[in-house]
Design a protein that fits this description.
single chain; 175 residues; alpha+beta; Aminopeptidase; seven-stranded mixed β-sheet; 5 helices; 7 strands; 33% strand; binds coenzyme A
């Protein structure tokens, strides 16, 4: 993620999250927070400017990667792109030598939980009234990020790329 991406990130952020982060929070994350790493997913059609369709990030703290956010534009959901972004976060966490990945997710957010469980995350606890002092968070982690997990991740990436390749039929590409 670059500073120039933030306005497109904010459009998705406001459409997706009940308590969106401010643009200044993203500015801080990408310019000043050395523990933070943020990715964007862009879609390119040959004759048009690229379009930002998702983003995700994490903080690396004492060997633990804490996923701070992940979102896909509503119009682009259900095509494997959230999974693509999540794999890229997990890849980076492995490259950063993280030994675990952790995140909070709303108890009601079964879509995101299904994605995380697909990647072997398990619910390990709860944070009561974590969201807007109302809704509980589920704490989910994957541990350890060992060779077995890396092999699993490689297989999942290969399968996903195959599915994406079949779907796009040369009309778009994702970065
Ligand atoms: C979570 C999110 C990033 C998933 O993105 P997406 O591009 O729609 O998801 P994908 O198409 O890549 O699907 C990947 C997996 O997610 C799960 N999933 C996706 N949509 C789902 C749905 N409607 N119901 C249940 N599971 C679903 C499935 O496990 C799916 O794998 P499958 O295709 O093999 O079944 C997206 O829903 C989103 O941006 N949500 C709002 C923001 C948010 O909740 N972020 C998480 C904060 S903790």
């Amino acid at each position: 993620m670059r500073l120039a991406d933030i306005s497109a990130v904010m459009a998705i952020e406001h459409a997706v999250f009940p308590t969106p982060w401010k643009a200044s929070a993203y500015e801080y994350e990408i310019t000043s927070n050395r523990l933070a790493s943020y990715q964007v997913l862009t879609q390119q059609q040959s004759d048009r400017p690229s379009q930002l369709i998702g983003y995700a990030g994490y903080w690396l703290i004492s060997g633990e990667a804490h996923v701070s956010t992940i979102a896909i534009d509503l119009a682009w959901r259900g095509k494997g792109l959230g999974e693509l972004l999540f794999i890229s976060i997990l890849d980076l966490a492995c490259a950063d030598a993280a030994h675990l990945v952790t995140l909070e997710v709303r108890k009601s957010n079964s879509t995101a939980q299904t994605l995380y469980r697909k990647y072997r995350f398990q619910a390990v606890g709860e944070r009561p009234r974590y969201y807007e002092k109302r809704e509980d968070a589920l704490l989910m982690t994957i541990e350890p990020l060992d060779d077995d997990f890396r092999v699993f991740l490689r297989g999942m990436r290969r399968d996903l790329f195959q599915r994406l390749g079949q779907k796009k039929e040369g009309s778009s590409s994702y970065k």
